[in-house]
Amino acid sequence: DVQLQASGGGSVQAGGSLRLSCAASGFSFDEYAIGWFRQVPGKEREVVSCISETDGTTYYADSVKDRFTISRDNAKNAVYLQMNSLKAEDTAVYYCNGIPAVRWGQGTLVTVSS
Question: Most exposed: 19, 44, 45, 108, by fewest CB within 10 Å?
Answer without folding.
Answer: 44
